[in-house]
Amino acid sequence: MSRKVLVWNEYIDDRRAGPAKDCYPNGIHETIARLLRSYLPGTVVETATLQDENSGITDEALASANVLIWWSHVAHEQIPDTVVDLVQDHVLRGMGIILLHSSAESKIFKRLMGTTCSFRWRESGDRELVWVTDPSHPIAAGIPCVIELAADETYSEYFDIPKPEAVVFISSFAGGEVFRSGCTFQCGEGKVFFFSPGHESYPIYHNDMISKVIGNAVVWADSGRPRGPRRMFVHSPVGWYELQSTQAEVL
Amino acid sequence: MSRKVLVWNEYIDDRRAGPAKDCYPNGIHETIARLLRSYLPGTVVETATLQDENSGITDEALASANVLIWWSHVAHEQIPDTVVDLVQDHVLRGMGIILLHSSAESKIFKRLMGTTCSFRWRESGDRELVWVTDPSHPIAAGIPCVIELAADETYSEYFDIPKPEAVVFISSFAGGEVFRSGCTFQCGEGKVFFFSPGHESYPIYHNDMISKVIGNAVVWADSGRPRGPRRMFVHSPVGWYELQSTQAEVL
Amino acid sequence: MSRKVLVWNEYIDDRRAGPAKDCYPNGIHETIARLLRSYLPGTVVETATLQDENSGITDEALASANVLIWWSHVAHEQIPDTVVDLVQDHVLRGMGIILLHSSAESKIFKRLMGTTCSFRWRESGDRELVWVTDPSHPIAAGIPCVIELAADETYSEYFDIPKPEAVVFISSFAGGEVFRSGCTFQCGEGKVFFFSPGHESYPIYHNDMISKVIGNAVVWADSGRPRGPRRMFVHSPVGWYELQSTQAEVL
Amino acid sequence: MSRKVLVWNEYIDDRRAGPAKDCYPNGIHETIARLLRSYLPGTVVETATLQDENSGITDEALASANVLIWWSHVAHEQIPDTVVDLVQDHVLRGMGIILLHSSAESKIFKRLMGTTCSFRWRESGDRELVWVTDPSHPIAAGIPCVIELAADETYSEYFDIPKPEAVVFISSFAGGEVFRSGCTFQCGEGKVFFFSPGHESYPIYHNDMISKVIGNAVVWADSGRPRGPRRMFVHSPVGWYELQSTQAEVL
Q1: Domain ranges across chain D
Q2: Considering just the CA atoms, what is the radius of gyration of chain B in Å?
Q3: D165 vs C163: CB contact, 8 Å cut-off?
Q4: A206 partner at 20 to 30 Å CA-CA among A69, A184, B27, C139?
């Protein structure tokens, strides 16, 4: 059974004339979809945007996705809470999710983290250096010790997130700021990767190493297991000592 | 400035005739308040219940509390989302919170964790052994290697929470089940402690060692700092190199 | 390139007449090797024992091993420190290692952990229940919520280890004890799994589910990457701004 | 009972004519001792150096110390392994330890971490910005969001340590490098803090904010408890069900 990835983009900045559209003429989602098809040949990649029906997110689409990639910036508040509920439910049951750049401020990231996810930012075009701080992590496979990006938006600590399971990347910016730019989390049965590089005005998703990070992250975030059921508080009628061990499977 | 603790109880099981009222004639909140006043003489302890105005939770009450203790069981859904928002906001800004027993299923715990917090349970009255698994943790100070409780409700793994910062206690039950019964988390600037012993039908909060755990947890959860402001995404007009270092304080 | 696993056993208890030899007539290493060959068909499995030259551990043997499995009990002190140095070096450079049962007391485990790794134990033959506490972890794939072992040695907290990256299993014993029985760690570039079930007097490594755990652990512990060089303190002659980005690879 | 801190310095660079002696005429240990006496009035501060008998480290001196501060650079290999054993033993039993700057390469840090602790470095005199990445941590109390140091040695990732419990500070350097400059670990019952700022050629320990960090770290690292016994593998003659609960204390 092949892996399926759904790339979701709010598709606003990159649809109107300007630097974002110059970098991503068909939208950020199409650039990311293309890089994944190239990097992960056996993977089925689909795209969706906020302009699609149901904001582009349905239970069916998520049910068949192993990994969801999310890019949002100016329209976080346009996502209905029912969509956030749905995405959270699939993540907790095992769907991987990769949140890019300003998706740090998205409702779904804040829902999964339980914190404000706030940070400092500056539209600077400063040079960003993305340092590997967990070289044995699968997401860093094949990545050199540092990725240089000629220009990106500056993000800076303090970044109000729970302690990540792994901090795979830490960035510095020409202004001297630092940011935990690649962080993993486990939320229920789902793997979560936040990766900050990728301001829409710069061609960052065209960078080979950034592409490789995202491709690695897809492989990592895909649990390779069937989606589990919704977890419920389960009443256990009897104790272990009264059970046959053959019943263990169904507990 | 003295520490203030607010003990909140839904006060339903322990208000009507039955084993809970037999154990806690004035309500679980009054028993916990009394043990804290005894264990932490300088601490101001107040109580509130679901029956109070605004479900017993106001911005003023939280603003003056260093630590909130929460006990809920059958009325989780009666807590309005606006109250959950308010408690979360204070936790993220530095208020400590201690969640007891079935508060594992409360809206506020699920909000802070981002997961379902589900688990298996059995109203068994089985013996519970609460083992210390992090003896150097402040919450375990003065606690022997194991606390024996003659009877409690059985809680069992898998407990669907993010990886705790510390697992201070793991319980076993006579039926053979295990449960991570004392877990700490950091949520924004607030410290969070979940402690599972304490079914309402057994006099568990009258146990000296359980009292000591709760007292220790209050001391631990109190950050000792003034409540911070609401964290916002902060636009930084200029980079560090353009700032005077004296401005660092206000960033 | 196929995966290679080296199964090392001190081979003392299970070589002389008695219950250990009854359970493992050809030694614990042969039973584990056989289960791995069956569970992981493409994997090359070799064995070594303390009775072999150089205590069965050479730089060459480790260099070609993706994962080392270690079982020791009464002869921890017979392992020369130079062998411990060698194993540690390979782990830090990316070799996976799986430490079974009383290997908790081995020199190499204590070296990697930096702590005493001490715990309480009782040769009881009590029933052990091994509960899954991290169901989405690859090591728990296909494992039911609990594995019942009719008899094992009792291990009990407090277990003096650093906080594990993941606690995949927690066991309870008929005497009421609990133990973090399946713990993962990252040591340099190497993955480490400690798994406590497996007293030599009981046929635990013949249990299908225990076999599956060990097989899963081998797959998990194999980084799939070439062994890195010995890490050194590296003098950087010039700063990033003076480097060409093409040099990043070699930093 | 008052807190006692032992400040240990190899005292080599700062004893011979040159920039280190210019910055620290009486040695780095005396500067740190003075700042602690000023910042923590009730604390007893003693000093020792490599030139003292037994390398300045005795069982008696450690037994009475709540926290040990360690500064070493060129003489790591002159510390006998028996001294490393002794310090490790006290840390595992509850003594706090604070390792400064190039002590990252010390035998005791590598022993406690189990890894190489290697990193990249450059004697650059570049500006260092020390960013707070865990503002609610006690070590960051009263520290602004960033500390500017006009000049320090550049340290750079990858820093080969186990995942810290908390990354309190991350530094950037003018050359673009990043480094996890303030990291906490729990080793047995002892708290460990590594803090990288402090090259001997610059007056960094005269900086008020750096002093405050070290003072905070001493308070944090002091467990406030009597030193525990050496942890041993403990044979439990009988199971919990055969014990009186009053025996739990002695287990």
Answers
A1: 4-115+181-227
A2: 19
A3: yes
A4: A184
